[in-house]
């Protein structure tokens, strides 16, 4: 068979071939008015849902229904006008109005003189691909929107955080794991009179004149990331460049913001120079006032004692009672003044310890007998085991025990019993005082050992200065022991202390 024989197939065979394909094919006659369709195959009919009779003779525009102003239509019109081929994607509609996307290959058929006689349209339904593309596009847009929203949120939270950081009246530095400064707030720059350029990107230890390059501080800072142990209330007194001698309080923590960064260190620096000076002035006042009061009071004590001695045999009962009461109140005043002087001595580090061996059991017994004799409402019950010899400052320890038991009595007005327990735990003496009184709230448990701290609600109803427990704590610390409290509001409290039995004499003196 020759080539020309192959090309000119029987038209019926050709029509069957065209009908067998899945691609829609239409042929329009460009020489007739309005370029009507003169042929369409079965796939085209199926694609658009119109019958053969409804298609032949019509211009292709019926496929676009009312969707006329599509860009693709202008491209097709242009191609037809110029007798050129074109490829477009166009929105078409089936007979029952369903949208489908058509990829249309339009090719112009020309006669020997170059006139366009026909157009052949090859059409593929690309709806599913188009929908997939649209979904993809939508997903992309959604993702893009999410990214925009998230970025906005982060920016807002960053602005929020940085407004807090900038408002805070404390100097803040953020460092990476190698202690390189990543940021510093305004308060830091203002306090140390430095610029951001002098700070950012520098090593903490290279700042200023090396003020933070302290071996002990370095060790603590190095522990923060591996152990998550913060640096708490570390004081640095230093001659700082530009601002002179200052006392700074340092607190450092590991900070982490999920997804954003990890292993950062936040260092907060508080200038406590002024605060400490004010505290010092108060301490000085306390010390001066208590000493000034002590001298006349000692004289008054002497005179009261003299009045008791010189009291005539035949003095009236009333007169005797007035003098006795005066003696009692003066003794109380003396005791209060002694406590105030103790506080100021502790503050100045002038505590004198008179360490010696003494009988701990005897000391406890005599102290409790003394308190019991003056107490009507409560019974003090002692349990536990004998301790025998102990090494310490006996009168200081009497003061601790007296204080704890007096508090137990004072703060349990509605109960009748105070339980004392004495025992030996390993190489320590353990002494506990339990009452069934008011108890202490969780928040106040630690604070009751601070000087002048009194729990709010009870202040008005119970006399006191809030220094007894502070003194007790200091005395026990001087003996290398610990004092603590366990308590439940409304149920009562247990104050306990431990003392090492074999207290190393030298260690105690050196404290
Ligand atoms: P003061 O008793 O003079 O106020 P302290 O230093 O002895 O001073 O006690 C400090 C505070 O601790 C008291 O004001 C009280 O609020 C609380 N406190 C001490 N002991 C007890 C106790 N046994 N039960 C309840 N609260 C107590």
From TrEMBL:
Cellular component aspect of the GO annotation: membrane
BP GO terms, sorted: osmosensory signaling via phosphorelay pathway
Bilayer topology term: Multi-pass membrane protein
Domain PAC: 86-138
Record domain Histidine kinase: where: 288-503
PAS domain residues: 10-83
PROSITE patterns: HIS_KIN (PS50109), PAC (PS50113), PAS (PS50112)
GO terms of molecular function: ATP binding; phosphorelay response regulator activity; phosphorelay sensor kinase activity; protein kinase activator activity
Main location: membrane
UniProt entry tagged with the keyword Plastid: no
Subcellular location: Membrane
Domain of life: Bacteria
Keyword DNA damage: no
PANTHER family to which the protein is assigned, alphabetical: SENSOR HISTIDINE KINASE GLRK, TWO-COMPONENT HISTIDINE KINASE
Protein name: histidine kinase
Source taxonomy: Bacteria, Pseudomonadati, Bacteroidota, Sphingobacteriia, Sphingobacteriales
